[in-house]
Amino acid sequence: MPRLSAGSARRRRLHARLLAAVVAVLALAGCVSIPDSGPVTAADPRPPEGSSVALIAYGPTPGATAHQIVQGFLRAVAAGGGDEFAVAREYLAGPVAQTWNPRAHVRVYTNRDIIYSQSEEGAVRATATADGSIDAQGRYTEAAPDTQVELDFTLARTADGQWRIVDLEDGILISPVAFEAQYDSYRLYFLTPDGEALVPETRWYPSRSAPSLIVRHLLEGPSSWLVGGVTTALPTGTQLVEDTVTVTDGVARVELSAEPLAADPAQQALMVAQIEESLRSVPSVQSVEVVVGGAPLVIDEVHDLLRNPYVTGSPVVIAEGVPQRFTGSGLVPLSGAGIAAEPRMPALPYEDLPGRPVALDGTDRLVTLPTEQDVGSLLLTGEQLVAPSVDRHGWIWTTPRASDGTVQAALANGTTARVGARWLDGAEVLSLRISRDGARAVVVSQTDGVSQVDVAAVLRDVDARPLTLGEPVRIGESIPSAQAVTWVDDQTVAVLGAPAGEEAPAVHIVPIGGPATDLPPVAGATRITAATGDRTLVIGTADGELYERNGLGWNLAATDVYDPAYPG
Length: 568
Known about the structure:
Blueprint (H helix, E strand, L loop, with lengths): L7 H11 L12 E3 L32 H13 L1 H4 L2 H4 L6 H4 L5 E5 L5 E4 L5 E4 L2 E6 L4 E3 L11 E4 L5 E5 L4 E3 L1 H7 E9 L6 E9 L3 H11 L25 E3 L2 E6 L8 H15 L7 E6 L2 E2 L19 E4 L2 E5 L4 E3 L9 E5 L10 E4 L3 E4 L9 E4 L7 E2 L5 E3 L7 E5 L5 E5 L7 E7 L5 E8 L2 E11 L5 E4 L3 E3 L6 E8 L2 E6 L8 E6 L5 E3 L5 E5 L8 E4 L4 E5 L2 E6 L3 E4 L3
Parallel strand pairs: 1-7, 2-9, 13-14
Antiparallel strand pairs: 2-5, 3-4, 5-6, 7-8, 10-11, 12-13, 14-15, 16-17, 16-40, 17-18, 19-20, 20-21, 21-22, 23-24, 24-25, 25-26, 27-28, 28-29, 29-30, 29-31, 32-33, 33-34, 34-35, 36-37, 37-38, 38-39
Helix pairs in contact: 7-8
């Protein structure tokens, strides 16, 4: 993800998703009488710089009904990113005009109209279907299909008889178009516990305040579901001086309190790497200056951190009963079958990282593939094992489909580990993949016929041995019948899942912390893998057809090949 301005690539993905969006509800409560007080505030209703849609806010019309006041308020909210909701506040009266916090909770509804209702006392209720929401820390949650949300507005007449809103929940309700105009996605970067790799977490911010929010929330640390799987080099208690990051002539100046001065040079270098990498997604930022205790922080050592390792080469498939590399124009035998009588579902280590190619032998045995030195060995057994995944530490992951609340991992030398995953107990595991940084696992599981996609942190000991999967976060709420998953990059997965009423599985591109977008279905698809980026996606079918990404669709690249796999 040349470099696009203001996150335009994200906007295109978001726009495609938003055109097919769902509904949410707003509820409103009773009316009271209040005095008319406070001056009318003028505002500049310009949309944010770089916005793709110009939305103009208008203040309340004299004599407007309660219904019209709520409608006008929501229209002003849609343009509020340009004037920081000054016009929207003209629709409020009493203390709420100052205390209302529009950024506390952003509710995005689908492109369908809001439905309004009104009580005899004058209260108004607006109804829509939810597409997603963003909390005060910028974390996006996709709404499940047909999720309804209700918000209550309390209205009252002023002394001169004008309706105004006197009570409402914090936050805003906006359409996909307004959301696209006001918000963009950014990444906060944390560290793996060994300090070797960067791990992103996506957040959504208004573009004009993004630099300050990025650093402020980076200092607060990762979301709870990531705790244990990542760490940070920023010392506890470190704060932004003046609570803001200034950007002048492309240079972001980050002024921090004195706590980092007590850190050793290696920790300071990691701290600066986190800040620089996190601010890199802001288009206006070309470089970063970190100031600590009033003086620029000088870093002598630059850390070469792993960040979404680039996958080269061709995928491995099973063809003619043995693992072979598909070059695009033909097949090259990888190593033979070795001890595997029925090799299937191969998995490869990342280039120049620990590990060894493996495969399932039938459905119940995980084996290493042969080399010049040996014919391979049996690593572990289990009933109906899922396709294996090799992490950057060389651990090979799999699990029986019927979960007992653990998953299994093994090294090529035969060392094994049972990894706790209590939230999977009693579920049927369909797919398990470890992220390229080794800090997260994405799992497709099914319970009572209903599938779901979860991401969880991987907790390890000091030797990188996996111990447990943390409590998960649900993603891809809009995807029915999920059956397989792969990592596309360091913060995006691709999920195979058949749309409701359809038999052919579609490919859903799902950012961890963002809205999903869809690619066309492929009949009979059972396996999905990617090198680096969604343009490298490859799909395998039950009939041995291999499809490669071709524009917005798929190109049949080979037949009589099965179970394609890139490293990971």
